[in-house]
Amino acid sequence: MANILTTSDFPKGKYELHTGMYDQARIDDYITRYETRYLVELFGKELYDEFIADLTLGGGTPIEPRFLKLWEPLFIDCPSGSGVIQSEGVKELLKGFIYYEYVQDLINQMSSIGNVVPVGENSEKATTLYTTMYGRYNDAVKSWRTIQYEICIENPAEYPNFSGNAKYFNYWL
Question: Which pTM value belongs to this model?
Answer without folding.
Answer: 0.86
